[in-house]
Amino acid sequence: MSKSKVDAVSIFVRLIFFWRVLGFTTNYNKHLVRIYDVFVTIIVTLAFPMHLMLGVIFAKDKETIFINLAIGISSIACTAKHFMLRPSIDKILYVNNILRQLDERVQNVADTDYYVKQMREKAIFMINFFIVVYFSVAIMALLSALWTGKILYPAYVLLDWQSGTWRYLAVMTFQTFGLNMQIVQNLTNDAYGPMVLCMLSGHVHLLSNRVIHIGHDHETDVDDNYAELVRSIEDYKLLMR
Asked: Are 154 and 54 in contact (CB under 8 A)?
């Protein structure tokens, strides 16, 4: 069997990059990555939601209470989703290995064309859609804060940000970093599932086509048809995993 021209793992390169941004362990500089991971966990998944919820407690007006409560609840939900996905990274690598094996079965022109147009392009559209939508929110919030001279959210902060430019920039840096990292957490959670389902449903379609055509070519002998059927059964077992 010749080498396939497609590679599903390359479709997930943006997600892998974002997971590394969040501090998930890689094979390089493991100790530095773990330190960075602890830093991100403390700042993003703990301190950022906490300063929003403390803003609810110490708020002096109802508008601030409702703004911080809405953002705080969303932030906590995002953190919870992140921690639910985090232990499954090994399973994600396992799924990538399965996709790589299924890719090897994409050989002919028709299958490759379907793979590129119906699987790869749709999966890439999904991740691009989430990136544009989610980070547009962050950009609009940042521009609005800078235009009005306020911080992103009227949450509880240790510094009096109104008393000096550097204090304002320090608070803005903390809030901007926390917001964008939470967006990355949410993006990886929301994009991965649809992308994988797109790839798997496409491979089910391709497998169905291969099974349908077994025995239809009169020039193919019985042994080759039998071997193709066995390979198709193995592909089915991979999909069931």
From this structure: no
Give per-residue pLDDT as tens, 188-223.
888 888 898 888 889 898 888 888 877 766 666 777
Checking 49-57 for CB contacts under 8 A at 24+ apart, the result is 49/75, 49/76, 49/79, 51/155, 51/156, 51/157, 52/153, 52/155, 54/155, 54/156, 55/153, 55/154, 55/155, 55/156, 57/156
Angle between helices 165-212 and 89-103 (to 10 degrees): 40
The Cα 169–Cα 163 span in angstroms is 11
Among the listed residues 7, 30, 24, the one whose alpha carbon sits nearest the alpha carbon of residue 85? 24
What pLDDT shows up at residue 219?
66
Distance CA(222)–CA(137), nearest Å, equals: 59
* DSSP type of residue 58: T
Q: Collect all residues with Cβ–Cβ distance below 8 Å to 25 and sequence separation of at least 6.
A: 33, 34, 37
pLDDT of 109 reads 86
